Amino acid sequence: MATKAIFITGGGSGIGQAVAIRFAREGWRVGLADVNASGLRETAAMLPAGMVDTYTMDVRDRDAWKANLDDFTGKSGGRLDVLFNNAGIGTGGPIAQMSFEDMDRVVSINLGGVLNGAKIGHAYLAKTPGSCLLNTASASAIYGTSGLVVYSATKFGVRALTEGLDGEWYGDGIKVRDLIPGFIDTPLLQGPIEGSNQNIREVVTGAGLELTSAADVAEAAWRAVHGDDVHTYVGKTAFRLKFAAKWLPKRIRQQMRRGIAAPQ
């Protein structure tokens, strides 16, 4: 049987790193892409020698997408079983206080980068029977998140893209799935909240909300790729928000007015 192959953006840390380890454990060849070259080296060192390729890449760079997927599939025997559109940034803060530069950067990476991966990746996925485009959305794609509205808007966009392409690519034999995690215990949560000396992790734990490990997300990614659900929810926060958005809309609205955010 031919060795299966997965290409992961944001593979230098967090969810991308955990997913790389999980799929490599099953004998898959792994392509890692990230803007963080040292993070790429760190992740690659955790994987079997000869089964990993690394690419320093910004997901906004369409030429880099094409060149790196050409290179990776050349080494994988033409296979691209999974393209994991995972790279993203967590810049937040009230929209009235965000700079236009920060706003544009979040949109161009979190949504534009995913769109680039989908459009460019289609040709490679279509050559591999049973392939899958897997996107990282967020619990912020369940209900608009106060204090993180730009981030939330991009994740709603990722969710919409997933649902739309699930239908659009059905005839091409490509599955399209996404992960909808709540708070994941990664370095992203250590970033300071704008206008505060607290980081997101402290706010989350102080509010009595739980953190989910990146390894749990990696297990969910494995299930998502091999299952039939378009959306795979990960962690108690994601399931609670899913329930509240459907059955307790007034309560979740009040929660957002208090400014309790629920980012990935």
Brief digest:
Belongs to the short-chain dehydrogenases/reductases (SDR) family. With 264 residues, this protein is an alpha/beta fold.
3D structure, described in words:
Keywords: Oxidoreductase. GO terms for molecular function: oxidoreductase activity. InterPro entries: KR_dom, NAD(P)-bd_dom_sf, SDR_fam. Belongs to the short-chain dehydrogenases/reductases (SDR) family. The chain is built from nine helices and seven strands; from the N terminus they run E-H-E-H-E-H-E-H-E-H-E-H-H-E-H-H. It has one domain (about 5-255): 3-Layer(aba) Sandwich (Rossmann fold), CATH 3.40.50.720. The chain has about 260 residues and is an alpha/beta fold. Helix 4 (about 100-125) packs parallel to helix 5. A seven-stranded parallel beta sheet has the order 3-2-1-4-5-6-7, sandwiched between helices.
Q: Which short descriptors sum up this protein?
A:
single chain, Rossmann fold, seven-stranded parallel sheet, SDR family oxidoreductase, oxidoreductase activity, NAD(P)-bd_dom_sf
